[in-house]
TrEMBL record:
Keywords: Calcium, Disulfide bond, Lectin, Metal-binding, Signal
Annotated Pfam families: F5_F8_type_C_2
Species: Branchiostoma floridae (Florida lancelet)
GO terms under biological process: regulation of cellular defense response; regulation of complement activation, lectin pathway
Gene3D superfamilies associated with the record: Galactose-binding domain-like (2.60.120.260)
Signal peptide: 1-24
Chain's role: Acts as a defensive agent. Recognizes blood group fucosylated oligosaccharides including A, B, H and Lewis B-type antigens. Does not recognize Lewis A antigen and has low affinity for monovalent haptens.
Family: Belongs to the fucolectin family.
GO MF annotation list: fucose binding; metal ion binding
Name of the protein: Uncharacterized protein LOC118410853
Domain Apple: 242-320
Subunit relationships: Homotrimer.
Amino acid sequence: MEVHNRYQTALILLLFYVLWLGRGDSAITVQQAEHLKSRIERLKSKVDAVNLKMAQTAGTLNNMAETGLPEMPEFNIAEGKTAFQTSTQGYHTPATGQQYPGDARLAVDGNTNGIHWENSCIHTKGEANPAWWVDLGQSYMIKRVEIYNRMDCCSERLNPFNIHIGSSSTVTSNPKCGGDHQIDVNQPSISVSCQGMTGRYVGVRLPGSRTLTLCEVQVFSTSDVAVQSAPISSNTPAPETCGLSTFIHVPQSDCAGSRIDIAAHGGVTLQFCADACCADPTCLSFQHNAQSTCYLKNKLCSAGEKGYAGGGNMYDRQDVAVQSAPAPAPTPAPGVNVAQGKTAFQTSTSGYWIPVTGEVFSGEAHLAVDGNTNGDHGANSCTHTNGEGNDAWWVDLGRSYVINSVVIFNRMDCCSERLNPFNIHIGDSDQVIANPKCGGDHQIDLSQPSISVSCQGMTGRYVGVRLVGSSRAMSLCEVQVFSNS
Ligand SMILES: [Ca+2]
Ligand SMILES: [Ca+2]
């Protein structure tokens, strides 16, 4: 614009100069006239060029006003990252020898093909709340998540699904991106905007008893910063060094249990089973049996946990076996019981005495911190309330402590079921039930004299136990509160 005006001004001044030269009877030479003419033409062509440029700029601005700003570049930050799923269901076609492992990495292999038999889709077992997730290596600002569905059959299995994004490796405890999503089952993929969410873990979960299949999950961010600095998860085995020779053969044994079986593959070779365990960072051992069935396991079972299995063999991952088999991880010191002998309270007290013997069973609050864990109410070391509704007992530790755990000794001569369920409250308010809960509803095993509840990280001067509901008398034979400080 400024350029345009400058040339216009120059042109006008030049015209005045020509008029001034031509005033009165003084004449300009032919040479001077030619020179001026060429200067005027050069200036005119410059003005034309500026006008053209301005017209083009105006056109671009008009287009932008109609179509919006140009798209920011986006990067799929999930491809090739480490992926997990709650279980794996693989298939084998004996006639052709083809194997379809269905393992978690197939949803980040860069192949969006929706035909399961093209070997690029994951597959869980039918189970409660199946989930798949990827560890991006570090936290990213997420823009959107694109999910490619299975298309050769069963595309309706995906609906409805949830997406979770956050920093917890327990991926389904992370916030949801939106609510229940529905894919159009005729479309190969769905793009879900998760603008504004941040996280290292991105997961897909099917609520309910279902089977999860995903052919690709792309996670888009407007920044691919992790390319330079993504830390490699420390428990990820180096794939090039993993193979059958990595495992220790434990003949005719199995440690069975659906909770430790993270994947099952039917009709597969021993080498396939070893490779599948290598490919899954959570796999520490596997069983391969006489029916050519392979079970991947998420732990290394101790000799005591391993049972005899006539048709099967366990294979334990060697490097882990060397490190962790000889001794279990040391348990941290429980700390000191800071409750014993402190002042205790309860919402009511129900005592009784036996006239024949003259014995008194006071049931008072201090009996839960008298240092005697005897669960027999007749030994006079247990508390007893009236059952007036929401009965509670609490101890004043005298000052605030960082709590490790609370151990509760139940009544054992009768009525041990009365304790379930119970809540623990810890905090600095003497209105003890206004303090935060340690966990939710706890259940003690009725065959056990005590339960230890970890309250790691909680701090408080008052520790209470409460039975929610009416007509529930509370009897506690001892409450120990462990702390290091
Ligand atoms: Ca894929
Ligand atoms: Ca006691």
